[in-house]
Amino acid sequence: MAIDCGALFEDCESLAQLTPSPLAAGMEGSAILAIAGQVKARIASGADVANFTVGDFKPGVFAIPEAFSKYIGEELEAGQTNYPPAIGVPELREAIRNLYERELGLKYPEGTVQVGSGARPPIYSAFRILVEPGDLVVYSVPSWNNNYYAYLNQARSEVITASPEDGFMPTAEALAPYLREARVLCLNSPLNPTGTTISKEVLSDLCVAIINENKRRTAVGHRPLILLYDQVYWQLTFGEHKHWTPVELHPEMARYTVFIDAISKCWAGTGMRVGWGVVPPWIRGRMKPLVGHMGAWAARPEQLATARLLNEPETIAPWMDEFKGAVQERLTTLRDGLWAMRDEGMPVDALDAEGAIYLSARFDLLGKTAPDGRTLTSDEDVRRMLLEEADIAVVPFTAFGYPPKSGWVRFSIGAVTVEDVQNSLVRLRALLEKVA
Ligand SMILES: Cc1ncc(COP(=O)(O)O)c(C=O)c1O
What we know:
This protein is an alpha/beta fold. It folds into two domains: about 20-50 and about 320-435, Aspartate Aminotransferase, domain 1; about 65-310, Aspartate Aminotransferase, domain 2, CATH 3.40.640.10. It is about 45% helix and about 15% strand. The chain has helices at about 5-10, 15-20, 20-25, 30-45, 65-75, 90-105, 120-130, 145-150, 170-175, 200-220, 245-250, 280-295, 300-310, 315-345, 380-390, 420-435; strands spanning about 50, 115, 135-140, 155-160, 180-190, 225-230, 255-260, 275-280, 350, 360-365, 390-395, 395, 410. The strands form three sheets. It has a seven-stranded mixed beta sheet with strand order 2-8-7-6-5-3-4, sandwiched between helices. A four-stranded antiparallel beta sheet has the order 9-10-13-12, covered by helices on one side. Strands 1-11 form a two-stranded parallel sheet. A hairpin with a 7-residue loop joins strand 9 and strand 10 (about 360-365). The protein is globular. The N and C termini lie far apart (about 65 Å). The chain binds pyridoxal-5'-phosphate. Pyridoxal-5'-phosphate (PLP) binds near residues 55 and 264.
């Protein structure tokens, strides 16, 4: 008979409490996933929820490129099932360098690419390499997960509260007080959760500040300030909004920039787990053993298939056009619907859809009474009401570190159809009429 381990785990409260390190014990779970749990429960109870919560894709709505699936199958059939090198297979590293040269105008040499299982291992390892306990990490809110990475590396954090007028991006002015001390500045554009992009001017100002600060540090032999530039959504920008890189604006920034990238969002392949960092060679040299010891590699067939597809811009381009069009259609339908309600005097507004798969919306409902008679006193109250009364599931910016009671929420469109968006706008209008 098998040993019943479950029984051995009962009555172990003190053991359970004493086992994890203080660091692990203090680690918080994702606030977004907690909301997603509630949404799932509501869907399971039979409600037809428009799920705008997770930054993910529903495969039935957004599928990965067909050629990608085909190539993965072919690589598997060809027996590509052994360990990949810790830095990634050479074919993929070269394809990434070619992509950056072709699309971003950046020619990186061999020895600058670190592949990982998605964008997270390069982010985590960059923190690990750059940040000592107590070092200062600066980032703005709302933003995605910087708080967790800072916590895991016992960094001190300086959190800049970005404003909607600045498209929720930090400015050189806001950064100035922390420049002399900061070890890492985290930037993400297009930004999760806002769907906004950093402008050429603002990014350029930030780069000048970093370059000047690093001139000062080099002269006195101090460690440089590094820009962690997360551009996982860079291929998803809309209309006149363009993606800018620090290195194209100020080539010297190549010395101080850690690019973070992945196929997760731009190929709708969040579960495929292929990401990378493009970094100065001395940082890649340290990333290799770190990612290697974690074993956070992308699977070998997926790496090889990604390499093939990256090298075939003519195969991916039509898919990309269609994918981007579908993302944009959902975002603009949502934006236009919210703007129409705003123009009629309803207590809602939205920013323009500039990039990524997100739209920022603001509900001005605090102090108002929900249909169930409760007074809305927080963004969490508003979120619950939207879910319970209109079957609209969103994530308040508080889950991304933004101050409470701002009214701002994130709509993510990866799991909805255009019809879902239209239907949810009808339900939202009816709800806002009742509340107002
Ligand atoms: C800005 C940003 N960077 C990185 C990631 C993580 O990407 P991956 O799934 O490739 O690890 C996400 C995921 O939501 C993200 O929004």
